[in-house]
Design brief:
Blueprint (H helix, E strand, L loop, with lengths): L2 H9 L1 E5 L2 E9 L2 E6 L13 H7 E6 L16 H14 L4 E6 L2 H11 L7 E7 L13 H6 L4 H7 L2 H11 L8 H12 L7 H4 L2 H7 L1 H10 L3 E7 L7 H10 L5 E4 L6 H4 L1 H16 L1
Parallel strand pairs: 3-4, 3-5, 5-6, 6-7, 7-8
Antiparallel strand pairs: 1-2, 2-4
């Protein structure tokens, strides 16, 4: 465990949701910002720009169910359950309204939260999407994701190793900003603790849910009155420039930031530029 992860975990708190323990870090002041990480990592992804975020926002970064230091139960883990948990967490913090910053499967969960409209327990004021599968037709999963969602998924998860994890991460990061040794070792440790590998096939079913819920989840991008933007690392093989182009085709009056030298984890690869774009967006929507 790196010193940074050690400090992050020292700050973490827990919240009980349906007999599950949800680990999260809550710091800062200002308007509320819910930070939703991606698969298969954890809320610690936001650490590289955390100090900058909490200067302007009252932030919470939870570990999703089945990942990080949150519970990894032997049960279905649909997007709707994750969305329910995030609403409950915000309510537990006393929030009635908040902004969203999301990445990867966090984008999908955010689409579900936005699609709930007036039925949502939280009033969502804005949403920033980092690289993620907003559209099932443009999502290009890597091999390990395809294997995990296949009938062989349970065995693939058991056989997965730190070597395969590192290879997958190196493939989706920009070659200009490869993952650090600490990022790889810390996230592998978070992934495998508490038999975390067994949850992977259940978690990755979000890819099927995207197809099943396409009309609802893509439709909200086209009709929402909530301010939204996409910050996209163009070199991402999963949801890079091809996904950003599709976003511009389908979303009315799209706001897209193209970052030509970044990959799937732009906020880890170059946290300074992502933090700058986040703050720029919030200045624009407040003006």
């Amino acid at each position: 465990m790196s010193a940074r992860l050690d400090l992050w975990e020292e700050k973490s708190e827990t919240f009980r949701f349906h007999e599950l323990t949800i680990s999260h870090v809550h710091e800062g002041s200002g308007q509320n910002l819910l930070c939703i990480h991606g698969f298969p990592t954890a809320g610690f992804d936001f650490d590289p720009m955390w100090s900058g975020l909490i200067e302007d926002f009252n932030c919470v970064a939870p570990d999703l169910i089945g990942l990080g230091n949150s519970s990894k139960p032997d049960q279905p883990l649909p997007v709707s359950l994750q969305a329910d948990m995030l609403e409950a967490l915000c309510m537990n913090l006393g929030w009635t309204k908040a902004h969203i910053l999301a990445h990867d499967v966090g984008d999908t969960i955010s689409q579900e939260l936005l699609a709930r409209g007036p039925k949502s327990k939280i009033k969502w004021k804005s949403c920033i999407f980092l690289n993620g599968g907003l559209f099932p037709e443009t999502h290009q999963p890597i091999l390990i994701q395809k294997l995990l969602i296949s009938p062989l998924g349970k065995w693939i998860a058991k056989l997965s190793s730190e070597k395969t994890f590192r290879a997958s991460m190196n493939r989706i990061f920009s070659p200009n900003y490869p993952p650090s040794e600490d990022f790889l070792s810390d996230n592998w440790g978070l992934l495998v603790q508490n038999q975390g590998r067994t949850a992977l096939p259940r978690l990755v079913r979000y890819m099927k849910e995207r197809k099943q819920n396409r009309e609802r989840w893509v439709g909200i991008l086209q009709t929402t009155s909530v301010s939204i933007t996409l910050i996209n690392g163009s070199l991402d093989p999963i949801s890079g420039s091809h996904a950003a182009a599709h976003y511009k085709d389908l979303v009315p009056n799209p706001r897209v930031v193209h970052l030509d030298d970044l990959g799937h984890y732009p906020h880890v690869e170059n946290p300074e530029i992502i933090l700058k774009e986040i703050k720029k967006f919030h200045i624009e929507i407040r003006s």
